Amino acid sequence: MKVLFNADDFGLTKGITDGIIKSHLHGVVQSTTMMMNGRAVDYAVQQAKKLPNLNVGVHLVLTWGKPISNSVSGLLDRDGYFKYTNTFREMEPPDPDDVEKEWRAQIEAFLQKGLPLHHIDSHHHIHGWEPLNETVRKLATEYGVPVRRVDSLQSHPGILLTDKLWLDFYGDGVGENVFDELKKIDAPSVEVMTHPAFVDKELKAVSSYAEKRQEELNILCRLKVPDWVELADSE
């Protein structure tokens, strides 16, 4: 089985970025995805350029912070922040043209930093929202990169990063039995979503998921890879 440990939220804060870097250098994390409207993007880019074996993609955002592009007022609240939240499925879908404009701007902003684009996923898995599926497929095809697997895109396996996505390494599911659980999955390839970080005031100010990130970091740096696992993208 090929297993890809991906760390979300690269560039959101310095503590998150440093946690991801440690989990790569001293743990099992092989890739990460960057929030281009995060608070530590420039720092994350500088660090990523020192780490040629860390694959970096874009963590498309529609549910946190402010946009990269202009003239997407339909996506925003009156204060200029994205109006969508992690309960977006209960909200009226956005104009796909506005979403494409903003997500294209986020991808282009990433590419302008001089990093190769590894893959695409999204904050709160909003790229799996059915009204945005066509937009996601269009961007993945145009930029020639795979997308994190979500159920709504399973009929398009050619653009998916892995055959399965394992979300249980999160919250109460964080533990050292990762490989025991993965062994139960019947699939050639699996992505494990992770959120390692050093917890600081800045992290607590931007995310309700804070203390568990330090626990994730500690475990990701202790895991021993069994011989039946091939870490994806490893040499």
Automatic annotation (TrEMBL):
Pfam families: YdjC. Its cofactor is Mg(2+). Coiled coil: none annotated. The keyword Metal-binding applies. The lineage of its organism: Bacteria, Bacillati, Bacillota, Bacilli, Bacillales. GO terms for biological process: polysaccharide catabolic process. It comes from Lentibacillus kapialis. Keywords: Carbohydrate metabolism, Hydrolase, Magnesium, Metal-binding. This is Carbohydrate deacetylase. One of its GO terms (molecular function) is metal ion binding. It comes from the Bacteria. CDD domains: YdjC_EF3048_like (cd10803).
